[in-house]
Design brief:
It contains 9 helices and no strands. Helix 1 crosses helix 2 and helix 2 runs antiparallel to helix 3.
């Protein structure tokens, strides 16, 4: 960790090579985060590129080296939300059904698509908190830093988000069980 903080300090001071190495280390996480929001490679790559560009332009503004990764994640999320707003894209059930048919999916993949679809339909604060927690393994403290909220609020958002997901998914699987018995 000390080595990373030294590299981050160097990047903040204008060392392009240090910044390049830091961004390279974060690229998979950033791309995955972007893709989770937009659900397509082209937009995810655009978001990643915009994130890198903004990081290069504003790395000198990072005040606390320990929060470099959090700062990058926040940029990525903001870029993803901007693309979503611009494109007004939603994953609709027809697209999920097409994916199921195209992939000849097993029950597990179908369930993952249902979760991804339900997650995509949640309000942004719940979706962001749940994605950071369960897809990126962020701690509550890290999520609070990214979302600029108190930790207690984040715990509530995660709890309510999970309850909303459970409610949405319960309806999907209850409908399937009824259909199976008819």
């Amino acid at each position: 960790m000390q080595h990373d903080e030294e590299k981050i300090d160097a990047a903040i001071q204008g060392d392009r090579l240090a910044l390049q190495q830091l961004l390279k280390a974060e690229k998979v996480k950033l791309y995955r985060m972007a893709f989770t929001y937009v659900k397509n490679e082209e937009d995810a790559l655009e978001i990643f590129q915009q994130t890198v560009l903004q990081a290069i332009e504003s790395v000198h503004q990072v005040k606390e080296p320990a929060y470099f990764s959090t700062w990058l994640t926040r940029i990525c999320i903001n870029k993803a939300l901007a693309v979503l707003k611009r494109n007004k894209k939603l994953v609709v059930m027809d697209e999920v059904e097409e994916r199921r048919a195209a992939n000849d999916t097993s029950a597990e993949i179908a369930q993952q698509l249902d979760v991804a679809n339900a997650l995509g339909l949640l309000p942004e604060k719940y979706k962001t908190a749940l994605m950071l927690r369960y897809y990126q393994d962020f701690t509550v403290k890290q999520i609070a830093e990214v979302m600029n909220c108190p930790e207690g609020t984040i715990k509530t958002i995660i709890h309510r988000g999970l309850a909303l997901l459970k409610k949405d998914l319960k309806g999907v699987y209850a409908d399937e069980r009824k259909r199976d018995f008819n």
